[in-house]
Amino acid sequence: MAVKEARAPEPSPSQTEQEAQRLSDRGLAGLGWRDEEVERAARLTWKINVLKKETRAVIPAHVYQRAEVLIGVADFVADSYKLAKLCAQSRAERVIFCGVRFMAETAKVLSPEKEVLLPAPEAGCSLSESISAAQVRELKRRHPGAPVATYINTSAAVKAESDVIVTSANAPKILRKLYEKNETVIFVPDRMMGLNLARELGKAPGKELIVWDGSCLVHDNFDAASVEFYRKMYPGVKILAHFECSPGLTSVVDFVGGTGDMMKFVDEHRAPSYMLITECGLGDLARTRFPDKAFVPMCRLCPHMKATDLSRVLRALERPAASQRVEVPAFLRERARRPIERMFELAEDAGAA
Ligand code: 13P
Ligand code: SF4
User: Fold this and answer.
1) Nearest ligand, CA of residue 221?
2) How far is the CA of 302 from the centre of ligand 2 (A)?
3) Measured from the CA of 128, which atom of ligand 2 is nearest?
4) What CATH code would you report for 13-124+305-320?
5) What is the mean pLDDT of each run of 10 residues along the chain (353 residues)?
């Protein structure tokens, strides 16, 4: 494919001022950004937004991305499930994916005709890196006939070996569906999420639910022991934890789910304060979306998610480096696509529990 090059004009001082005001109003001021920092970001977001239109690009962004990316340039901000759907539905010719590699690969698998660019090409995921296609094949050999439900945080090669993909927004529903016809299900690669699912579905880990030993470097590290202490310190606090946290922790919090459902919970409840035990980006986004609600900080940064900054987004739009271009070989695309589409069918099947 021919490399498209484009160059954004420089914003005038009044355009920069207006853009800085927009960023402040949309939440950067509330997150404590200083005027000069907002102005520096505004010069970049202005250029990105001009080029985005000119090159018919769309910018999807995962909720863990930096606030200036979410507020300044993203066309849609969502969890892994919705990002996959929205990218497939988008009519844009170019996708500048502000997220990590497995997400951009999923977009390419679903829309091979689009040019998919990952501004931070090194942005991986500790879960995705924990399992290979050969290891999935070996699991299938050891558990013949058991369907493989694979978390979306995996490479296209691993997806290609799977029966169905799941995300934290739909894993319980899809696994329930699989158990209607199977006694044993293989779930890869997140061990913590696997154990959470086994408990929720009443299945024996290692027997009825075969789990892999991968973990998320962010969620694996939160400590269940301090939850009671925080409850005393912040009376009435609602504590929410991501599905990737340990079962010890998820058994003592008020809500367990993916990022989309955590945000929905905050939106739908009235509590004195909320603690979002997950990557820090979700708390920042919640503070900008719900400025009247109080949040107790408890988060860790994902180095992969934070690798995307505005200058790399601009580079991807102006003069994409070869390493920013996401390609998935055709033979893998076809095989990876089927289990992703099966997820869409099962997740949206009103008949499924
Ligand atoms: P969500 O699907 O809940 O957005 O999670 C993605 C992720 O990477 C969690 O660490
Ligand atoms: Fe992967 Fe964890 Fe980072 Fe999500 S937060 S991208 S699961 S390493």
Assistant:
1) 2
2) 6
3) 1
4) 3.40.50.10800
5) 75 98 96 96 98 96 98 97 96 96 98 97 98 98 98 98 98 98 98 98 98 97 91 97 97 97 98 98 96 95 98 97 97 97 93 50
Does this model's pTM top 0.70? My answer is yes
Q: What is the dotted CATH code of the domain comprising 128-216+330-349?
A: 3.40.50.10800
Q: What is the predicted pLDDT for the residue at 221?
A: 87
Q: Whose CA is nearest to atom 3 of ligand 1?
A: 258
Local structure of 46: helix, strand or coil: helix
Residue pair 82/321 in contact (Cβ under 8 Å)? The answer is no
For residue 17, the CA-to-ligand 1 centroid distance in Å is: 35
Please report the pLDDT score of residue 233 as a whole number.
96
Give the pLDDT score at 6: 86
**Alpha-carbon gap, residue 347 to 287, rounded angstroms:** 29
Closest ligand by atom to 280 CA: 2
| DSSP string across 133-176 | HHHHHHHHHHSTT--EEEESSS-HHHHHT-SEEE-TTTHHHHHH
Q: Going by CATH, does the domain composed of 219-300 fall within 3.40.50.10800? A: yes
Ligand 1 binding pocket (C-beta < 6 A) is: 79-80, 153, 167-168, 216, 244, 258-259
| Token pair recorded at residue 283 | 């708390």
CA of 304, nearest ligand number: 2
